[in-house]
């Protein structure tokens, strides 16, 4: 059966039939149109063709040659593509432009250049030059398609075309001799496909002729200074294939095409065309941007050098990849932003952050490391810095929240600690501080990220300040409590002896009172100092607490004395004294008055003796003035009442004024008189019985 005639794609032959190919790879794309505009669809198409994520694992082949030499036909047969082929019957021109189509036999992009043949038609060679530049910038293998009979015609159209190819190639890698720039892959394979090979001239002759021609063209180029010594072979490898006449020997043609296809698909072959050294090292996901950039440069006739293009590409793609990576990163970190903002300490936040960072950098490295190394490294640093700074508020927030949690825990620990029986306040504080500090530092270290300048020392210092303040406040409270407790004990020890002493008035009474006062005060102060040892109080704090204690003890003594010297109490004291003397005899037996008794004398004696006691209550007057205590300072008493009397040396020891004494004396006399009258009456009535 006749193989496809001209249209190429119309029928399938052999095991690699088109219908058995990858259906998603159908369809071609006009990369550059007749108006020399570059398509916006390249990346979407690469994606549709399943090539976008191939990294470097894809190849590019382009074809060059005179118009109507069967280029498109060849590509369609070789790669199963669907490029337009000139309709034999109409001799109609195909659409001008650069077309792209994926191969059905491997991850290969095939480019077909359709143009007017400037040389033959006398038109300008502008598009030819542009498309040559464009192809060389991305192609590993450039197929140069030519009729056998064109070989050796040195001045023929093909040779002019190749001269153009060589010239533009020099420009691409010339780079003005800037040796600082990294040199991209420079080599390209030129595969001559000799069409309508009759076979009468041995292949070796044809390839020798072509090789010589190439060398001649190379020699004839005017090269830039720094490339004067460059050889053809430093930029191009030459390879050859021949195909029989497609119309006259269709079967032979098909056989030869299948054989040739193997050179594009079988890596194990020695003449496999896609050698790594030809790859232009543009990652598949950068091809769209790169090719468009190349075309724009070509269009504007600016100097086009590939190192610069690759850097531009790397910048663009690394930025794009960073954006994608950052979006995912922010999305994953979002879950903890709110909790941190509202004050939660997020457990394992550091591990989470490290995980997001690793994921983000892993993705970035995977996709971006294929691009220009310098740019990639720089962009990686940028990305890392921006990721770090987006995490920084989380770190700060966590520090703040830890601070809050630990101060709260510390307060609680103290409150709980001082409820323990026999607690040592100093220890409670010390342990609380140590615990808070250790937990804070551990959590802070967990959330620290390598490579950042995040530090927790400042926040730790703030925490320690706060803990100190809390401890100080608690200590003040505790000290107050302690002073109160001691005051209660002291009062118990003081008040009863004082009451007893004053209820049995005597000249020794004040010595007893002041002696008791002195000794209970001293033991109170001692008790304070013993307890205060564990509180780490300062000298001033101790002094202040003791001053308070002294003022309180003095005040309670003063109050007790005032109470004991109130009218009613004194009268009661005097009354019981008087009755003791008047109603009981020396042996303590109640007297029964008899008519012989001198009631009057007994009455007067008892009354006068009792009245002699009254002045004892007027002042605190010990046997020696040196026994009088030093008065404490009133400010220390915590007392809201501002009665200066107890603290003023001129009033502090005075209990009863002369007027008061007189009035008490009068009242007492009246009561005593009543007792006398009653005694008299009782005697009369006993006599009467
Ligand atoms: P292109 O312009 O180089 O892409 O050429 P086409 O593939 O469009 O083919 C141009 C014409 O050459 C068409 O009519 C094809 O049928 C014919 N053709 C294709 N392959 C061969 C071949 O191997 N030998 C000859 N003589 N003609 C061919
Ligand atoms: Mg064509």
From TrEMBL:
Principal location listed in the UniProt entry: endoplasmic reticulum
Subcellular locations according to the entry: Endoplasmic reticulum membrane
Membrane-related topology note: Multi-pass membrane protein
Keywords of this entry: Endoplasmic reticulum, GTP-binding, Hydrolase, Membrane, Nucleotide-binding, Transmembrane, Transmembrane helix
Cytoplasmic side: 1-689
GO MF term set: GTP binding; GTPase activity
Keyword Transmembrane: yes
One GO biological process term: endoplasmic reticulum membrane fusion
Signal recorded as keyword: no
Homology family: Belongs to the TRAFAC class dynamin-like GTPase superfamily. GB1/RHD3 GTPase family. RHD3 subfamily.
Name of the protein this chain belongs to: Protein SEY1
Record gene name: SEY1
Positions spanned in the full protein: 45 to 733 of 850
């Amino acid at each position: 059966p006749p193989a496809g005639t001209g249209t190429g794609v119309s029928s399938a032959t052999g095991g690699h039939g088109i219908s058995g190919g990858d259906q998603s790879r159908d369809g071609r794309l006009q990369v550059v149109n007749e108006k020399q505009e570059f398509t916006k669809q390249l990346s979407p198409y690469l994606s549709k063709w399943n090539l976008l994520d191939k990294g470097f694992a894809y190849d590019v082949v382009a074809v060059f040659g005179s118009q109507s030499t069967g280029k498109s036909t060849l590509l369609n047969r070789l790669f199963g593509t669907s490029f337009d082929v000139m309709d034999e019957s109409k001799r109609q021109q195909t659409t001008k432009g650069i077309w792209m189509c994926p191969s059905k036999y491997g991850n290969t992009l095939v480019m077909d250049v359709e143009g007017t043949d400037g040389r033959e038609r006398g038109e300008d060679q502008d598009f030819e030059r542009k498309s040559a530049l464009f192809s060389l910038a991305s192609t590993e293998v450039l197929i140069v398609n030519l009729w056998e009979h064109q070989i050796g015609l040195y001045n023929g159209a093909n040779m002019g075309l190749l001269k153009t190819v060589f010239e533009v190639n020099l420009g691409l890698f010339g780079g003005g001799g800037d040796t600082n720039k990294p040199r991209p892959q420079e080599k390209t394979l030129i595969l001559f496909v000799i069409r309508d090979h009759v076979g009468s001239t041995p292949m070796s002759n044809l390839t020798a002729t072509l090789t010589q021609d190439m060398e001649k063209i190379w020699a004839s180029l005017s090269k830039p200074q720094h490339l004067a010594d460059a050889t053809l072979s430093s930029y191009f490898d030459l390879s050859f294939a021949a195909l029989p006449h497609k119309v006259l020997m269709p079967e032979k043609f098909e056989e030869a095409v299948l054989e040739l296809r193997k050179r594009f698909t079988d890596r194990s072959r020695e003449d496999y065309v896609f050698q790594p050294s030809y790859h232009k090292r543009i990652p598949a996901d950068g091809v769209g941007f790169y090719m468009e950039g190349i075309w724009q440069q070509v269009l504007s006739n600016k100097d086009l050098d590939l190192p610069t293009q690759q850097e531009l590409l790397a910048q663009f793609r690394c930025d794009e990849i960073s954006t994608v990576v950052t979006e995912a990163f922010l999305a994953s970190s979002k879950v903890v932003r709110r909790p941190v903002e509202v004050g939660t300490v997020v457990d394992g936040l550091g591990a989470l952050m490290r995980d997001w960072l690793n994921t983000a950098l892993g993705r970035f490295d995977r996709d971006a490391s294929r691009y220009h190394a310098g740019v990639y490294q720089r962009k990686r640093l940028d990305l890392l810095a921006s990721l770090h700074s987006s995490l920084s508020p989380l770190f700060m927030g966590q520090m703040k929240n830890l601070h809050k949690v630990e101060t709260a825990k510390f307060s609680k620990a103290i409150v709980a600690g001082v409820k323990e029986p026999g607690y040592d306040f100093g220890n409670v504080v010390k342990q609380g501080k140590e615990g808070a500090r250790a937990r804070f530092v551990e959590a802070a270290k967990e959330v620290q990220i390598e490579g950042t300048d995040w530090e927790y020392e400042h926040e730790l210092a703030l925490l320690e300040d706060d803990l100190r303040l809390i401890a100080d406040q608690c200590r003040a409270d505790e000290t107050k409590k302690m002073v109160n407790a001691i005051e209660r004990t002291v009062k118990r020890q003081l008040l009863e002896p004082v009451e007893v002493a004053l209820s049995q008035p005597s000249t020794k009474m004040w010595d007893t009172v002041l002696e008791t006062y002195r000794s209970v005060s001293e033991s109170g102060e001692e008790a304070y100092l013993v307890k205060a040892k564990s509180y780490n109080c300062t000298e001033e704090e101790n002094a202040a607490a003791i001053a308070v204690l002294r003022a309180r003890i003095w005040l309670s003594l003063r109050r007790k004395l005032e109470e004991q010297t109130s009218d009613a109490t004194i009268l009661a004291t005097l009354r019981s004294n008087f009755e003791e003397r008047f109603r009981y005899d020396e042996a303590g037996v109640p007297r029964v008055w008899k008519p012989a008794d001198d009631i009057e004398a007994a009455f007067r004696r008892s009354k006068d003796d009792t009245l002699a006691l009254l002045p004892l209550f007027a002042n605190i007057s010990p046997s020696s003035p040196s026994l009088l205590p030093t008065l404490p300072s009133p400010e220390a008493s915590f007392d809201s009442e501002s009665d200066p009397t107890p603290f003023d040396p001129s009033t502090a020891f005075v209990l009863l004024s002369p007027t008061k004494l007189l009035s008490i004396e009068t009242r007492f006399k009246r009561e005593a008189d009543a007792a006398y009258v009653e005694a008299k009456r009782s005697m009369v009535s006993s006599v009467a019985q």
